[in-house]
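Hi L., both proteins are below.
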Amino acid sequence: MRSLRAVEAAAPLREHWDIQAFEEVLACNLKDVIADFCLTDPEIIRFYADNQLHGNMDEMVTASAELYFKGRTLSYGYVSHVNSSREEASCIVLEMEFNHDSVTVFFQLIFGNYYIGVKISEVLLETALRKTDFNPMFFGRILSSARLKPLPARFKSPYCPAGTMRH
């Protein structure tokens, strides 16, 4: 049996971080996964979310992520719902998790009619990682090391440096 890693919630530092920068780095690294996922008929995705068919949703997310990320680095959080207060403002929200090296990020993928968004809910860091060292560039390197293929140049943000080392 493996022992659990000691982790700390990074939420107290949220006021010191530019969360939008972290969300931009995450979104840039997920563009190819999202593009693959969006090849699915939106009515099927809505049906799975409405009917809580989490196994089916997990299979679709896993199939989309397996071409770009190592193992179960990027996974579906078994929670999805449809917000449909008005027809033109409806969206599908998937709870997701990124877990690699010393970082775990819980986030939402939001599929609207005219946009796709990423919203980080919580960040957990291994206690060995100093919180002061965790910044968008470092996060970009962790995401890069979790990928099977390098991030295409057209997807890079200013926080995703060109010479990012992979391991």
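That was the first. Here is the second:
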Amino acid sequence: MFEPGMFEYGLKTGDLSEEEIIKIFKKANGKVAKEIHDSRIPKGLNMKKYTGPLGRSTPDLEPPEYDHIYWFRHRVSNLFLELYPNREKNGRVKFSDEGIIWNLYVTLMSDYPPKLSEYDPIQEFGSRVMKELFQTLPCEKVLIKKYAPGEDRL
């Protein structure tokens, strides 16, 4: 269902609170980590909440002004997620699609980390987390962009 690549999704979460969304992210990660049962994958989600100046998606754009964004990743994983509000502090809207509250940037790498054997499920981790996340997150998910290799983010 989820193939390697870089994607931007809009999440129409409505009244779903930020805390509930984060809990769903953590639960999806934990469930798949337990199912794969590999010591290279931590059972807990490595989540960082960043505030302040967050950089630009491309050099010629003004930096976004968010209260905070979340980064989810593991050192030994083929999945990186960035969850951030669709509306910046200054009122700018990233994606104009009606009802998008949060944006989810996804990087899913192929052939990483290296398999230890032919039957090693480590490379399934990212796609399985995404599948679980999209099944359990009770909102509409809108694919905004599938990025070509090397393409700058919107």
